[in-house]
Write a structure and sequence with these properties.
The protein is built from 10 helices and 13 strands. The chain is an alpha+beta fold and about 475 residues long. The radius of gyration is 56 Å and the shape is rod-shaped. Among the domains are: about 5-170, PAS domain (Beta-Lactamase); about 315-475, Heat Shock Protein 90 (2-Layer Sandwich). A hairpin with a 2-residue loop joins strand 9 and strand 10. It has helices spanning about 5-60, 70-80, 155-190, 195-205, 220-275, 280-315, 325-335, 355-375, 430-435, 440-450, and strands at about 90-95, 100, 120-130, 130-140, 145-155, 320-325, 340-345, 350-355, 390-400, 400-410, 460, 465-475, 475. The two termini are about 75 Å apart. The strands form 3 sheets. A 5-stranded antiparallel β-sheet has the order 2-1-5-4-3, covered by helices on one side.
Length: about 475
């Protein structure tokens, strides 16, 4: 069952109960008020009749020592006739409660008379032949006689009015419920429209349309829910895009890994088979062994780099405050024997937060790549020939922290390739990289390590003029 139908039905049930109880109370209250008024009038009329009977008895001649039954009947008849036109019914009984006079139509009900004595006045409402009466009974003291006067007042109209009131109220209630149902259907449709829009958005997204968004049509709680849903959908779409990119990158990685693994293995197997199946002279044997050794070293380097990347992604690193001077001292000592390349180290003293061993790995990879890029000399147009073979390693304080940069004046990187070189196994010049036992994993490892340090690798390069790789470590504070 739809929520809007549930809302309408629950409202109608509450409204029906409210109208039912309120209508019953209202009509019944009016009825009881009218009935009390009629009872009061019946008791007043009974008192008036008893007073009239006593007055008439006083006018009886004194020759009677006691009021005879015949006189009682005569006075009762006159009292009945005196009320002709208003439906007056009465009955008179003697001291023994034997009936002396009864009006035509008076109900022969003996329930009230036995309960009445000379000191009480009693009444009750009775039903006789589909009509309702107020039955009263009162004692009369007339000429040393105790008589009992009973009256019956017709109050059928009061009960008829109650029945008409209930009937009319039922009709009004039905009309009000039908009208309320139509109004509530309209209101429920408006109130649940955001839910229908959210349901449609959910179905569209479940069908694969992650760009679909629910339209926000209100600013209440449902409107806020719609806004939260759309924000959740945005986050979900971003995560899905990231997952798709990761899956695509993983597929590319597996393809590149298989290719890079196949190439050296093919060379190793080929030359090994040649050594195994042919008797070669010394020169060819040395050349074949050299190919096997070179490709084996490249496989070894690739396996170590892959292991480093996996560890860098999974390891939880504690960053410590370390003087930059210690890092630069290590690098100068590391590359002091690099005679064919002029590596210049310049830095400002500062203390940064880093994991020293990981940042050393980043710097060694960047400097090693710069050395390889500088071995071919200046650019193809001869630009920067005075800086050929020079590598600048600098460290300086900047607004966001401490920037470390490695600049070379080698062959540079084409602009179209710059966004791809941090991917695993990607190499701009594969033949030159393989000749240096490269596997295209160094910059990928650097990127993963810098992510741990909440930083990223910045690349500035122009083909034929050189490249600059930099990153920023933060926070930073000056050393005292």
């Amino acid at each position: 069952m739809k929520f809007s139908i549930k809302l309408v039905l629950s409202t109608m049930i509450v409204l029906a109960l409210a109208l039912g109880f309120s209508g019953f109370y209202f009509v019944n209250n009016v009825f009881e008020t009218s009935l009390d008024r009629e009872v009061g009038q019946a008791l007043d009329e009974s008192s008036i009749l008893s007073f009239a009977f006593e007055t008439a008895a006083l006018n009886v001649p004194l020759k009677y020592g006691i009021l005879p039954d015949s006189v009682v009947e005569e006075i009762a008849s006159k009292l009945e006739m005196g009320g002709q036109g208003d439906g007056r019914l009465l009955r008179i009984a003697d001291e023994e409660k034997n009936i002396l006079y009864t009006s035509n139509g008076f109900t022969t009900d003996e329930g009230l008379l036995p309960q009445t004595d000379q000191h009480t006045k009693s009444y009750r409402v009775i039903r006789a032949q589909d009509r309702f009466y107020v039955h009263t009974c009162v004692s009369i003291n007339a000429l040393n006689r105790i008589l009992y006067l009973e009256t019956m007042k017709d109050v059928t109209e009061v009960f008829t009015e109650r029945a008409l009131g209930f009937s009319l109220y039922r009709k009004v209630t039905v009309v009000m419920l039908l009208t309320g149902m139509v109004i509530m259907l309209f209101i429920a449709s408006l109130l649940t429209k955001p839910i229908r829009l959210l349901t449609r958005a959910t179905r569209e997204m479940a069908a694969g349309d992650y760009k679909y968004r629910a339209r926000q049509i209100s600013r209440d709680e449902l409107g806020q829910l719609t806004g939260d849903f759309n924000r959740m959908a945005n986050a979900l779409e971003e995560n899905i895009c990231k997952l798709e990119e990761e899956i695509e990158a993983r597929e590319e990685f597996m393809g590149a890994f298989a290719h890079e693994l196949k190439t050296p293995l093919t060379a190793i197997i080929g030359y090994a088979d040649m050594l195994r199946s042919h008797k070669l002279d010394e020169e060819k044997s040395i050349m074949s062994a050299n190919y096997i050794y070179t490709e084996g070293k490249r496989l070894e380097a690739m396996s170590f780099r892959l292991l480093d990347i996996i560890v860098a992604k999974q390891e939880e690193v504690q960053l410590q405050e370390t003087p930059v001077g210690e890092l630069f001292a290590y690098l100068q000592e590391m590359f002091v024997e690099k005679k064919d390349t002029d590596i210049r180290f310049v830095h400002e003293e500062a203390v940064v937060r880093m994991e020293t061993n990981l940042i050393k790995t980043v710097m060694v990879n960047l400097i090693d790549n710069a050395c390889k890029a500088s071995e071919t000399g200046a650019g193809r147009d001869g630009a920067g020939s005075d800086m050929a073979g020079v590598i600048e390693v600098t460290g300086q304080k900047v607004e966001k922290g401490y920037q470390i940069a490695v600049r070379d004046y080698g062959i540079g990187i084409p602009e179209a390739e710059q966004s791809k070189i941090v991917k695993a196994f990607y190499m701009v010049d594969k033949s030159r990289a393989r000749s240096k036992n490269g596997a295209g994993l160094g910059l990928a490892l650097c990127a993963e390590i810098l992510k741990i340090h909440h930083s990223e690798l910045q690349i500035e390069s122009k083909e034929g003029e050189g490249s600059c790789f930099s990153f920023i470590l933060a926070p930073c504070r000056c050393k005292d």
